[in-house]
Amino acid sequence: MKNLKPDRAPRAALPASGGFTLLEVLLAVMILAITVTVLLLQFSVALRASTASQEVTRATLYAKLKIEELKMAEELSESAQSGTFADGYDWETRVVPYTHEAAVPEDEQAYESLRVETFQLESTVKWRMGERTRAVTLTTLKTVRKKEWKQDKQFL
């Protein structure tokens, strides 16, 4: 009987081609996808933090602006004002007499006899961030000549 199959040389084992198996490729793609997802989440968190920081910085600058306006005033008296900046930040300022906390009654009399009085200046800026209202408050003190001593040129 004749062999119907043509004579072929026996197949030698194919040398490894150095390629990747489907499992290795799928595993690499999965690791890459997880890494990219984590990186994108980090960028999102960083962007939100940057936006929040920018808003707090802007509010702080606005509050400082209002404090500086109060400090520049020639005369101070107890008062409160409020308003809104063009970009939606609300502001409030308050001027109240500052009371010195005397350790002993004699100190209190000494404060009364001074020719100056001290005011507490407070500036608050509020804004909405998402559903929350945020606020920055700055406070300082300013000493001014008492009104009854303003005319005394000897001490100017």
Describe this structure in words.
The protein has 156 residues and is α+β, with helices and mostly antiparallel strands. It has one domain. It contains 2 helices and 4 strands, in the order H-E-E-H-E-E. The protein has helices at residues 22-72, 105-113; strands spanning 79-84, 90-97, 116-129, 132-145. The chain has a 4-stranded antiparallel beta sheet with strand order 1-2-3-4. Strand 1 and strand 2 form a beta hairpin. The model has no long low-confidence stretch (mean pLDDT 85).
Strand order of the largest sheet: 1-2-3-4
Number of domains: 1
H/E element sequence: HEEHEE
- Structural class from helices and strands? alpha+beta
Report the average pLDDT across residues: 85
Keywords:
single chain, alpha+beta, 4-stranded antiparallel sheet, 2 helices
How are the elements arranged and paired?
Layout lengths: L21 H51 L6 E6 L5 E8 L7 H9 L2 E14 L2 E14 L11
Summarize the structure.
The protein is an alpha+beta fold and 156 residues long.
